[in-house]
Structure formats: structure tokens, C-alpha cells
Amino acid sequence: MKAVVCTRYGPPEVLQVEDRATPVPRQNEVRIRILATAVTSSDCYVRGLNLNSAYRLMARLALGWNAPRQPVLGMVLSGEVDSVGRDATSFEVGQPVFGFNRHRFGTYAQYVCWPEDGLLATRPANLTDEQAAAIPYGGLLALHFLRKAEVRAGQRVLVYGASGAVGTSAVQLARHLGAEVTGVCSTANVDLVTSLGASTVVDYTREDFTDGATRYDLILDAVGKRKSAASLRRGRQVLAPGGVCVSVDDGTPKLRREDLVLLGELATKGEIRPVIDRTFALDDIVEAHRYVDNGHKRGNVVIAVA
Predict the structure, then answer these.
(1) Band of the pLDDT at 66, cuts 50, 70, 90?
(2) Which of 143, 241, 285, 301 has the highest local Cβ count within 10 Å?
(3) More reliable by pLDDT, 54 or 160
């Protein structure tokens, strides 16, 4: 099979397309023929080890010292079940699926084997594989943090970084929960964030959301503290009584299969829609990583694998 291998930590050029053996599913695994994946910010952090010195040391111990032990990166997929292990009963050969695995990686390839009881679910029938691959990463993370903050109808939620993968999902999911949503983004993305259901959009290049009179029950930093630390410190002054400020960098999210199923159901009903900035071929993975590294993508960058 064709796969992208991370030869060492470094810039996008460390990624190389190679031929590798097609994996064989173990007894409780399914093999998936991958039709689409996505380049996430987490993929780029792993590839480049773009962390402070303390976290970089821990990452090397966890992932591999000079290069990832699992050299094929990628956490997200959409495709179809190609083979099942002896004891795997949850999926059938030919079944369309989509999913997320932040521990196994392996989706920058034509095939991968994942446990049948992992974050894997039937792909929404109304979505293409490219669209389905744009849902799990941002959707699962956004849903975790909104649930952690106990967002409910009538509350005011501000999403800082509303045009990224997590942000576009958070705006839609908060709106689905009945919250009044304010999105913070750049000028180029105001129309996009408005179309996703934000009742108010703040262009951070022209105004500071902390200057307004609105008080928020939740401020969700959807871009990470390296980019938003100063804004979050100021943001606490516009929290409502009992309000909370949460970052995607806070803790290790607990991701659940039932949430992936829920995201699929919401996408089927049109309650949420995937946002895709660009689609690249697998052979163009280096270019795709360069684009994500620039930090200005809208929603998701998708890789067409087939």
C-alpha cells in the first residue's frame, strides 16, 4: 500500500510517500480502506515537535526520541471496512465508516487496522468521504469542551478562533445546544462564521471583544494558548457570574464513541456541516502540511487518499 512516513521530527519535508506492507487485522480489529483523511494541527505538532522544551521532552519519551515510533501519522479517516478480524462483529466488509484515533495514528495511508470498539462509526450517508473526514477532529474536541462547561439553552458562548477546525464545530454545536454564540475571527472569515450560526461575529483585527458590554457564560479558546493567551487573560473580565474560560489546551479530552455517532446524526440532519478549506492528494502531503503550518486555514484541510 501507499503511505506517508515521517522520517524524523522537523518541517513538512520530513514526510515521504513510500510503499509499505498492507496491515492484517488482529482478531478484534477491522481493516479500513481509507478514502479520505485530514491534516490536523495535532498532526503538525507531532511532525514538527513544535512544543516548549519541557513538553518536547515528554513528547519524545511518549512518541519516539528521534522520530515517531508509529511513522505513519494521521488521526482521522473516512472510508470503508475492507476486512474484519476473527472476533470482530461490530462492522461488516463494505460498510462505510468514519473515525478518529489519536493513539494509533496511521491514516496517512491507503489502509489501517483499528479496534472495532474504538472511535469508529458508520459514515453519514449524505456526506462524501472528504466531508466525513472533516468532522471527527474538531467535532469531538468541541463537543467535549462544551459538555465540560455544561453549555445549555439561553447561555452566551464566545468562541475564540471560530473559523478553525474546532471553532467551526464549536459554533455550530453551541448553537445546536441553544446557546447564543459570538464568534471571534479575522475579517476574511466573518461571513463563514455568520453562516455557521453565530449571532454576533467580532473581527479581532478591528475590535477587541473585551471592550463590549456582553458578558459570557463560556469563553472557549479554540486555537490554543500559544496564540490566545493574552486575549484569554483579558477575556476573564467579560465573564458572567459563574462563567468559565476554557482552552483546547486544558487537560486531555475524554472522547467517546457515542459522541462520534451523535456527530454523524447531526450531520445527517443538517444540524452541523463540515467546513473544508482545501483538499490535497496524498502525494501532496508536504504541501498540505505547509499550508496548515501557516495557521490560517478555514475549518479543515482534507487529503483524498483513493
Answers:
(1) very high
(2) 143
(3) 160
Domains 2-135+275-304 and 137-247 share a fold: no
CATH 3.90.180.10 fits 2-135+275-304, yes or no: yes
CATH 3.10.310.10 fits 137-247, yes or no: no
Half-sphere exposure of 44 (CA within 13 A, CB side): 18
Bridge pairing between strands 96-100 and 111-115: unpaired
pLDDT(132) > 80: yes
Q: Identify the pLDDT of residue 81.
A: 98
Q: Which amino acid is located at 93 in the chain?
A: V
Domain range summary for the chain, segments of one domain joined by +: 2-135+275-304, 137-247
User: Cell 463540515 sits at which residue?
Assistant: 274
Does residue 238 surpass a pLDDT of 70? yes
E strands, 166-247, where?
180-185, 200-203, 216-221, 239-247
- Give percent of the chain above pLDDT 70: 99
Q: Which three cell numbers stand for residue 245?
A: 474560560
